[in-house]
Every structure is written in C-alpha cells, then in structure tokens.
Amino acid sequence: MNISTIGPFSLVNKSLQDLAQHPDAEIFKSIVMNSSLRERETLVRLWLTEGIPYAFKSSAATYDEMRRWLAARLRVHSKDVTLVGSARIGFSMKPTVFGRAFGKTSDLDLTIVNQDLFNACQADAEKFSFDFSESQIIPRSETQKRNWEDSVRRLPSMIKMGFIDTYLYPGNENYSVVKGIKDTMWRLTERLKKTPDVPAPTKVTARVYRDWDALIERISFNLASAQKELSTAPSISTHGRSLEPAIHA
Predict the structure, then answer these.
(1) What is the DSSP letter of 204?
(2) Where are the domains of the chain?
(3) Contact 205, 109 (CB under 8 A)
(4) pLDDT tens-digit readout, 122-162
(5) Among 71, 91, 73, which Cα is nearest to 82's?
C-alpha cells in the first residue's frame, strides 16, 4: 500500500471546529445559515443529539441516572434515550422564537431511538386510528375530536419518516405501549420537580424514532427549513441570546 495516497480528513466549515458545545444563539444561527447538508448532519449528531445537554450542564450525572431509569422502564438501552430541542442546545430553534433561552420550567423534548419500541408504538397508533374510524373510541369534546382527526391524518407521514409522536395518542389500556410511555413521562416530570439542581419542566413529551438515520434526517430537514425561513427574519437581542420573530422549523 502506498501511504502517500492516503489523504487527511477535510473540514469544509472551520466554524464547526470552534463551536462551543452550548453556543450563543447568534453564532449558531450564522453557522446554520451557511451550512451544507453534510454540515447540518454534523450539527445534528454532535450538538443536537449527543453530549451533555444544556439543561443538565451542572448535573450531568443526574442526567445519566435519568436516562438509566427511563431505559429500564421502556426496556431500551440508556444510549437510546436523549434530549433534543432547547433543553439540548440552550435556546429554541423554532424560527418564530429562535434564540429564546431555555428556562427551568421549559418543556423537555425526549427522543427514544429504538426499532422495537417504534414498531410497538406504530401498532398502537394504527390500532387507535382504526378504533377511531370505527367509532370504537369516542372523543369527549369537539376539540379532542379535531385533535384525534389530525393525529390520524398525520400518522402515515410520520411512519414514512420513521417516528411516532406518542403524545398525540390516548394513553388507555387499549394502547398499552403508548400508555406506558405517557405514564413514564408524567412520572419523570414529577421526579424532576423533586430533584435539586435540575430542570422542573411543566411537561415532558416523547418522540420515538425507528433508527438514528431517521432522527438525523428529520432534524437536518428542520434545520434546512429554519435556514430558509430565518433568512427573512430580523434579529432581536434578549438577555444575551438572540430572539428571531417569525417562522417554525
């Protein structure tokens, strides 16, 4: 083998090399605005799904203990469980409120990446869709009826993209996997409120992905959408972090 033919690893965007784990919102925005697909995927892997989340930057061991507890209840590996969203990076990435700082009572967005759990959630969601269409489960109000209709409408596209938003479906005994996840999210919310030096979220939700490829593809798509929409949004500074009015990723 001729060693002279072996080249080094290349880095297209040097800004990624210098980016802090929990970056300033304006700096992060500037990188997103000039990023390629490959660079967005790097952002997703290293900044938006891995490492110690901003919300637990002073309590990393508690974060790991939380993941171990969740994994035991959901029968997955602890590394299948991660935080995304503002709790991960430190600010909201939704273009309508881009840069809004994560707060102690902000919602937590949990992600579980596990094919077996995804398949079980899909089965529950499809059973719910059938039961609802056959009037075997009746909504308690017009608002719930509209929400359920929306959940049924969105299900095929979610399955195609490889994720299930468990909070969209009722947690009763007929949908035992979703029920178990929703019960676990409630218990997690209460446990965090009783734990010192960690977030005390108003709500914790769970999205279950089929695999890591589906997760990376989806969040990369969200970044690409934000890239387009934020290009027209003016910047506003708020408490040291930027706030971008207009748009949703």
Answers:
(1) E
(2) 22-245
(3) yes
(4) 999 999 999 999 999 999 999 999 999 999 999 999 999 99
(5) 71
